Amino acid sequence: DAMVIQNPRYQVTQFGKPVTLSCSQTLNHNVMYWYQQKSSQAPKLLFHYYDKDFNNEADTPDNFQSRRPNTSFCFLDIRSPGLGDAAMYLCATSSLKDRGNQPQHFGDGTRLSIL
Amino acid sequence: AQSVAQPEDQVNVAEGNPLTVKCTYSVSGNPYLFWYVQYPNRGLQFLLKYITGDNLVKGSYGFEAEFNKSQTSFHLKKPSALVSDSALYFCAVRDMTGGGNKLTFGTGTQLKVEL
After folding, report:
1. Residues of B with CB below 8 A from A106's CB?
2. Mean pLDDT throughout A8-27?
3. Residue B21 has pLDDT above 80, yes or no
4. Which of A25, A57, A59, A106 to probe by mutation at the B interface, max B CB count within 10 Å?
5. Which residue from B44, B68, B39 is spatially nearest to B56, judged by alpha carbons?
6. Neighbours of B82 (CB within 10 A)
């Protein structure tokens, strides 16, 4: 089945130690998103790619970076994780066919813990 | 700016009874509305969407939603709740800024279905 896969599902890192979360998709969607979600709150969009065009949200901290080397893969890099960055990180994809009225498809997330 | 509001943090219903999870929206222009469900430690799953057409939209797992333009509402409904429907539900509206296929989420409603 076509899907969005996030690895790892659980990640533990130390305060200040860089960490990378990964996302892959088999849907061939041209848009990929990264969200941060804290304790049953609404997902908060960090940034998204339209193909290789990177779009950062205005309030996303500089500590968060992203890379999209090809259509299938997208990475979230946290350069110096702080305790406040402990959260679930969700990757999603969507297609801009049908004038962009298609739903976003989510992976199951990576739960990040900071020691 | 586009926004959605979910006025109830939690909804409790007995199994077999009908359920309603409320959502109201505020948009400029035509609204593109979505419902997602999230089970513990999982990503968001798409349930249904309203773009245009019939005001009653049918979705996955027996859920439906009624679009009401005069009341600016898009409530999620199911005729007979199951214990397995217990989850976190998010209403979302498509954000048209920035060329977008971005979503603005409501704060979420925790649905608890009891025997």
Report:
1. 36, 43-45
2. 96
3. yes
4. A106
5. B68
6. 13
Q: Which two tokens stand for residue A34?
A: 């990264």
pLDDT digits (tens, 9 = 90+) for A41-54: 999 999 999 999 99
A108 touches chain B (CB under 8 A): yes
Section B76-88 average pLDDT: 97
| Residue length of chain A | 115
Instruction: Give the amino acid at A109.
Output: G
**In the structure encoding, which two tokens stand for residue A3, read together?**
């899907």
**A28 to chain B, closest Cα gap in Å:** 16
Question: In the structure, what pLDDT confidence band is assigned to residue B53 with cuts at 50, 70 and 90?
Answer: confident
- B5 min Cα distance to partner chain A (Å): 11
